[in-house]
């Protein structure tokens, strides 16, 4: 999973802090919505129950919602312990991981499990680790939902991280046959999930399918000889229909981005490399299969579960179980509420990091450092070391995204949207061209995505209810930061009634509204060049052993953050091996 606070919101003390609106009660006529919105049983799963935030309910017309104060860098380990450092203390470590989000925590665990490097310190400025992962539960009502990322692709690296964290039995997988839908011409249409579906799905016309097939074979215009945007690449290779009906809404859902500006090479590198390798998408696919046959993969870890088909995954009690488990295992190596104030090159080897901590000023001598914090935070910290690196890191853009979580009675779902009498499917995407007026005057520039979490994973909603997580905002709709929670809820409810919810259904039960002012880094055209410029500037200045990591480096999906953590751990291990012989 990027903006100044609006006057109607509480003051934001940190650039990434989540904005919450003033005390507006969103009233409702539904009996459930008369229950207290913030109760002792409402728990953010990244915190212990005793630490669950208690914020006053909101007031506004029609709906009943609650909000919480939060931050982009958020989460608290349920059973981690911290060894307090004496004021003025000087600690040491082979590696300091700056940032306790999922990238930082997974990097620390990968160093230990894959490379035997246990002398690691993870420092987090917030009072909680876990980054954007925000799982919330109302156990008394039977609701559990996400307000940051909502699932992950169960690749082997992510499954390895889960198993190494002791969470194998807590993994839950979505139905591989559950479709994802795209709104087109007033109807939710399923997206093909396997090649056999391609001839029969009605999202595209026959000419559109033929154009896509011929383009994939290589019958299309040649590459332009420069870096292409996602829109340019897809229109050239697969045609207008694939872009407008599949890729454009997909980009909105994954990146909350504008595909006319996103880089194909940076954002979807695997597909981009197919054309590079084989002259066409299908040619590259064939060549990749041939090469994998010549170089078979290592034997798969027998500890890992085998997901059935193409699906998504989470954990029994939400995504927060992963950072909680890692933090618990690392124990006192995770330092919370440690604010990094400076980093300097040591007179001998390595680096000296100075922190403001609850116990006072603490300095740490480190042989290596990896910054897994957002690029705009890293920019400020690294500016005294290299203004060129800082300037490059400041150029990455993070647009805002809001997560609006609502529940309806099952009977509110339109009958034509049910499969065998049930709401089935992973979620739905809405192309901008379909005229869904999510934010009034921003009707032509919006990102809106909805996930039926109660049909995707078990025990997310009580019997007879459906739980819908809706994302709104992104690069084409930055105006959400000036909207009140009630306005966001009304926009979501209005649009849902155009496609999924019966127009005469009762008002939604609003569980949460969370605005991320700086949500997801955009991999725009030139992204990789800018990242290389930042790394090169550090290397030119002699800052070897200082690494950059996180989602703006590895990729925005949770799975890519984990994969990137393993890659970073390998780089750090290699450096420390060389360091030992210098």
Describe this structure in words.
The protein is α/β, with parallel strands linked by helices and 582 residues long. The protein has helices at residues 102-115, 156-164, 206-217, 230-238, 240-255, 264-267, 269-278, 281-294, 321-330, 375-382, 387-393, 453-456, 485-496, 527-540, 551-554, 558-580; strands at residues 17-18, 25-26, 43-44, 59-60, 70-71, 90-98, 120-124, 135-138, 143-146, 171-173, 180-184, 187-190, 313-315, 334-336, 339-345, 351-357, 360-371, 401-409, 427-429, 448-452, 465-473, 509-516, 546-548. α10 (375-382) runs antiparallel to α11 and α11 (387-393) runs antiparallel to α14 (527-540). The protein is globular. The model is unreliable at 1-41, 46-82 and 437-448 (pLDDT under 50). Pathway: Porphyrin-containing compound metabolism; protoporphyrin-IX biosynthesis; protoporphyrin-IX from protoporphyrinogen-IX: step 1/1; Porphyrin-containing compound metabolism; chlorophyll biosynthesis. It is an enzyme of class 1 (oxidoreductase). Its EC number is 1.3.3.4.
- Estimate the global geometry from the Cα principal axes: globular
Helix-strand category: alpha/beta
Rounded to the nearest angstrom, the distance between the terminal CA atoms is 40 Å
Percent helix, as a range, is 25-40%
GO molecular function: flavin adenine dinucleotide binding; oxygen-dependent protoporphyrinogen oxidase activity
Protein name: Protoporphyrinogen oxidase
Family: Belongs to the protoporphyrinogen/coproporphyrinogen oxidase family. Protoporphyrinogen oxidase subfamily.
Subcellular location: Plastid, Chloroplast
């Amino acid at each position: 999973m990027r903006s100044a606070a609006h006057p109607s919101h509480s003051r934001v003390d940190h650039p990434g802090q989540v904005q919450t609106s003033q005390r507006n009660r969103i009233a409702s006529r539904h009996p459930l919505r008369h229950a207290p919105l913030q109760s002792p049983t409402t728990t953010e799963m990244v915190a212990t129950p005793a630490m669950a935030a208690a914020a006053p309910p909101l007031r506004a017309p029609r709906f009943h919602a609650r909000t919480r104060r939060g931050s982009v860098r958020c989460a608290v380990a349920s059973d981690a312990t911290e060894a307090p450092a004496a004021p003025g203390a000087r600690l040491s470590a082979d590696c300091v991981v700056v940032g306790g989000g999922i990238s930082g925590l997974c990097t620390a665990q990968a160093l230990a499990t894959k490379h035997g490097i246990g002398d690691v310190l993870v420092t987090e400025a917030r009072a909680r680790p876990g980054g954007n992962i925000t799982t919330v539960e109302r156990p008394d009502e039977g609701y559990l939902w996400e307000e940051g990322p909502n699932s992950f692709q169960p690749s082997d690296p992510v499954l390895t991280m889960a198993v190494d964290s002791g969470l194998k039995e807590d993994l839950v997988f979505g139905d591989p046959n559950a479709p994802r839908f795209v709104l087109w011409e007033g109807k939710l249409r399923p997206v093909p999930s396997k090649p056999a579906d391609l001839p029969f799905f009605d999202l595209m016309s026959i000419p559109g399918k033929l154009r896509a097939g011929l383009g994939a074979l290589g019958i299309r215009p040649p590459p332009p000889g420069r870096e292409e945007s996602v829109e340019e690449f897809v229109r050239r290779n697969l045609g207008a229909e694939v872009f407008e009906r599949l890729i454009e809404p997909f980009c909105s859902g994954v990146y909350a981005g504008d595909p006319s500006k996103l880089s194909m090479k940076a954002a979807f590198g695997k597909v981009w490399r197919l054309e590079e390798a084989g002259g066409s998408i299908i040619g590259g696919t064939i060549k990749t299969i041939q090469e994998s046959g010549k170089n078979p993969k290592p034997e798969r870890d027998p500890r890992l579960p085998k997901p059935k088909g193409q699906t998504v995954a989470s954990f029994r009690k939400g995504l927060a179980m992963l950072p909680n488990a890692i933090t618990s295992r690392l124990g006192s190596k995770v330092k919370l509420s440690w604010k990094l104030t400076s980093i300097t090159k040591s007179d001998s080897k390595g680096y000296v990091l100075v922190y403001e901590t609850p116990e006072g000023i603490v300095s740490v001598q480190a042989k290596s450092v990896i910054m897994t914090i957002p690029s705009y935070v890293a920019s400020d910290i690294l500016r005294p070391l290299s203004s060129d690196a800082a300037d490059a890191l400041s150029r990455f853009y993070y647009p805002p995204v809001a997560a609006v979580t609502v529940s309806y009675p099952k009977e509110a779902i339109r009958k034509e949207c049910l499969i065998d009498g049930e709401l089935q499917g992973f979620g739905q995407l809405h192309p901008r061209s379909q005229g869904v007026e999510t934010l009034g005057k921003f009707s032509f520039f919006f990102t809106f995505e909805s996930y039926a979490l109660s049909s995707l994973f078990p025990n997310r909603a009580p019997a007879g209810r459906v739980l819908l997580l809706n994302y709104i905002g992104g690069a084409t709709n930055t105006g959400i930061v000036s909207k009140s929670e009630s306005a966001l809820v009304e926009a979501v409810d209005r649009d849902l009634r155009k496609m999924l919810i019966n127009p005469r259904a009762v008002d939604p039960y609003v569980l949460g509204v969370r605005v991320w002012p700086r949500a997801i880094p955009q991999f725009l055209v030139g992204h990789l060049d800018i990242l290389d410029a930042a790394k090169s500037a550090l290397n030119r200045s002699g800052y070897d052993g200082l690494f950059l990591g996180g989602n703006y480096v590895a990729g925005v999906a949770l799975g890519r953050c984990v994969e990137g953590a393993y890659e970073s751990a390998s780089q750090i291990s290699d450096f420390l091996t060389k360091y030992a012989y210098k």
